[in-house]
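Annual report, structural modelling task.

Input specification for the 3-methyl-2-oxobutanoic acid complex:
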Amino acid sequence: MKRLTVPAIQRRKMGGKTADPLVMLTAYTARQAQLLDPHCDLLLVGDSLGQVIYGLPSTLPVTLEMMIAHGAAVVRGSYHSVVVVDMPFGSYEASPQTAFAAASRIMAETGAAAVKLEGGHAMAETIAFLAQRGIPVMAHVGLTPQAVNALGGYAARGRSQEEHAKIIADGQAVQAAGAFAVVIEGVIEPIAIALTNTLEIPTIGIGASAQCDGQVLVTEDMLGMFERVPRFVKKYGDVAGMIGDTAAQYAREVRERSFPGPEQTYQPKA
Ligand code: KIV
Ligand code: NA
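The model returned the following structure:
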C-alpha cells in the first residue's frame, strides 16, 4: 500500500464538501502507529504526548528532541498514513526563520510529511514562510493548548461575538498563508460549520462538529486509557480496565507460584 500524500489529502475536499471524511488519530510509538495506520488517513504525533506519555502538566515543556524521537518512531511504524508532527511550544513563535530551523529538523530527522503549529492570523507569516520552502503546514485554531496560560484554561472558545469573529478570521488567515489543512479544536459548533463551509482546505475537528471534513482524537483518550477526559472525547474502549485486569491476573499467578508454568519453563534434554 503506497503512502498517502499531502496533495492527496487536500484533493479530498475538491469542489466543496468532503464525501469521504478524513480520519486522523494521534500516535506516539512505532507499534501504536502500526496498529492505527490501516484505519487512518493521517497520524498526528501530537505534543499531547507531554501529558499522555510523559505525565507533564501541559504541552508547554515538550521539547523538539521529544517530538523528533517520537515522530521518527511513528514514521517507522506506518506505511499508509500521512504523518504530521506537532511543532512544540517555543520552537516556532519567535520568527519564521526559527520556525524553519525547527521544522526542517523535524522533516529531515523523522521523515514526516508535514508539521502542525498552533495559531491563526499571528502565525500566518510563519506558515507562508514554511509552505513556500517545501514544508507542508497543518494549522490549529480555536482552543490552542500551548496558549493555556493566556486563555486561562481548556474551556470551549468562541462564545463571545468578538472571539467568534477572531476564530473565523484565524481560519481564513491560515488558508491564505498556505496551510494545507486546519485543525479546529474546542469551539462552539457554528464556528466549525462556518469554517468548513467557507474554506477550501480540509477542516479537521476535535470538539468541533461532525460537519468538519475530518476528525482527530487523542488515541489514548479514545481507547479509554484515562479516567478523566474532555467532554468532546468518546471512549470507544476500556483499555485501562484491560491493562489493570491483565496485570492483576499476572500478579496473582506470580504470588501463588502458578506462573511460570511448564510451558514457560526450560528443562534439561531427557
Ligand atoms: O497534540 C495533539 O494531540 C493535538 C490534537 C489533539 C489536535 O494537537
Ligand atoms: Na498538539
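Residues 161-177 form the longest helix (17 residues).
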